[in-house]
Structures are given as C-alpha cells and as structure tokens.
Amino acid sequence: MKRVIINVHILALFMVTISHPPLYSQNAILKAGISKVDITPSESLYMGGYDESCRAEPSQGHKGNIYIRVLVLDDNINRIAFIELDVVSLQRDNYDIIRKQLSETTGIPFANIILGCVHNHSAPYPGGKNINSEWYKQFNEDIIKAVQDAISDLEPVKIGGGLGRSHIAMNRRKMMTDTLSYLTFDENNSSQSYGKYKTDQPVLIREMEGVYRLGANPGGSIDEEVGILRIDKISGQPKAVFINYACHGTSLGGRNNFITPEWNGFMLEYIEKHLPGVTTIFAPGASGDINPRFVGGLDGYKDDIESTKALGDEIGREVLNVINEIKTDIPLDPEIKMVSKNIICPRKYGEVVKDFRNTTIAVPITAIRMDDFIWITFPGELFHEIGQTIKSSMHTTNTYIVGYSNGSLGYMPTQKAYGEGGYEPWSAKFAPATEKIFIAGVQNMLIQLY
Fold first, then answer.
1. What is each CA distance from 239 to 35, 76, 263, 327, 372, in whole angstroms?
2. What kind and span of H or E run contains 192?
3. Around Cβ 300, how many Cβ atoms within 10 Å?
C-alpha cells in the first residue's frame, strides 16, 4: 500500500509542477449557500431500514424532526450541490430521476448533483407502501425547494477545515463463541420474542465459534475521524458546517416505531443550538461495517431515544470544539474541479450464476476538489478500511468519503471480510477481488483532479 500512496503523490506532483505551474482562474471566487427543509410527516408512515418481519406496522408519531439539507458551492464557473436526505435510502431508479428533475429546474448540471441519504433507519421510506401518502407526493418538490433555497443563499465565503475524533461508532462484525441461546442471527430481522416470528415456545439456537454476525465488536477497528468543513461569511460570521463521519444510523432498532433524526440528526441539532444562525449538513462516510456503540435489539440493548440523543450530543461536542479552533480564509484556489466515472467491478459468483451475461457492475463515482478539500462519492455502503485507504492516499486531511449517494449498490466489503463471512459479504453483489480494483480506479480519478 505504501508503494501505491507514493505513486499517487509523485504522479500528482509531476502533473502539477512539471506539466504546468498552478494557474488559478482570475474569475473564480468561492460562494456557498446552505438550506434545510423540514420533512417531518404528520401522517403515520412505514419506516425503512429493517425487515418487515420485525417492524410491520407504520410509525406511531415522531420524536424530533427530519430534514432535507443542501450545501451549494459555486466558483462563478462551476456549481455543485450536496443534498442529504434524512431517510435510509431511495428506490434505486429514483436517484437519477430526481437528479434530472433538479438539473432541469435549477440549471445545475446532472453530474454536479450529489444526492445522498444519511441512512437513517428511524425515518419513513420514500416509496413502497408510502407511495400514496401526502408526504411522498410532496417529497421530490421538497428536494427541489431545498436546492433552490440554497442557491438563493449563495454568497462569497471563507473556509477552513479541521479533524475531530469520535468513538460513538463501533465495529459491527461480531465473531461468535460456541453458545446456545434463544437469540437469532439478527434480532432486528427475525426474532422469537418480537414481530412475525414471536412464539411462546422458542427454540434454542446454536452459534459456533468463529462465525460472524451483526453485533458489537469492541476490539474491531473503526474510522474515528470526524471531517469538518467550516464556512464563514466574508465578515467572519459562521454560516455553515459540513460534517463527515463513518457510522450507520441504527442506534434505534426494528422495535422502534417513532420517527427520529437518529444520532446524526441530534448531533446537527446540538451544533446549531450552540452556534445560532449556522446551518449544518452531515454526510455519512464509509460506514458499511460500522454501527453506533449500541443498536436497539442487538447485544441486549433496548431502543432508547434519550441514549440516541446522548450519542448525538457527544459527537456534537467534539465537532463544536474543532469548529472553534478552525481558522477560515478566502481559498487560494476556489475553482471546483470534478471527475465523474463508472468504475467497472466484478460481480460475485452467485450473481453471475443468476445471469451469466452480466459479469460486472458499473459503480458511478464522482471525485471533487476545491482548494485543499476533496470529496469522493460512493453509491452504497463501503467498508471503512477501503475508505481509509483512499483517504490516506491523498496529501490532505480534508478528504471526505460521501457514502449512500447517487445510487444504491449495497455493500462493498474488503476481500478479507469475504473469507470471514457474515451479513455484508452474503448480501453484497461484488466479487471479493473488487476491493483492489475499486481502490485503483478511485486513485486514478483523484490524480486527474491535479
């Protein structure tokens, strides 16, 4: 890996310093606009994220509000929109449908629209059984309004980056010991004590040593970095904050029927409460194998919204401490540079057996650079070690993996995880060799930004 990192740096340096000196556009000036639109439903809706065998009934109300949040950046030439929805995901085809609507309505090029979800498992699902709800009928219009509001908010800004550390997350690939219990392989999927499979005569279930299940793995690694972009008005008054952290929105499990903003939404509320006038936006990182420290329904934990809020407040305090240390300035190179590409990856053998003509998956990736800040999108759930490898190959700590965006291709595990087994490798559509192919493809894209 060290050889790959060195090659990326040397080639990037060669392209910048040998091919041509850095030429910054004289017309470029960075502007930013931020908005949020409240999409908390008044109806009882079906929620996303967990199997219906556990959560078959619609929501029973809400405890906290959910939003669409949008950050628009503009350099007088290029304009880009980061959109984060407080839901678990969209229906697969809807990412491109909504991006096309936004492009036609706002004039922002299709490729410049980054449409993501925060992967909140305690929010309504936009589609499915909710398709005839008033909430869903208004959903796309609410997204358009949020983007238009952010465009209207555009003004010249100063920026600065910082890096925090948080351990509200925990590795979720739990290696089992040899046990007999009444617990199933995933209590938020199939349970003998709740939901569809509830029974007065539960059976003992055998787990064998070395098997991997979803659960708390305190000894496992996480990506503890909290990436923070502070955006100030030219006057120095704080305007917006972009936050990036790798963790699922699953502290509340399948037994919870209240709509909530999950830990990440409570984090944003905490920051906005302590920074009046500031609007925040959160983008989840490479979170495929990372859960919050506790998940309702797993490892003996019960759903507790106050505990979820405490997680948000904990990471919110860390973000606030870093924000207060960040010094902002007008960027030296405000020009927004972008590369969009489909990285072709191999399908898993079981997927090829289903359709021998279809042996590959096109993974749409967008890489963005503005001054010393880099964003890499991923249309699904990337394992944190892959995200860390990509981030570590860059010269800047201001590198953000923006997961769950512009598509929904599921999990991309590490090659090692396939040998271990477990939920994510089982449900993934990618072949084990994908990790190296994907990393090389992303690194080639990043070189083009220099």
1. 11, 19, 22, 14, 19
2. none
3. 9
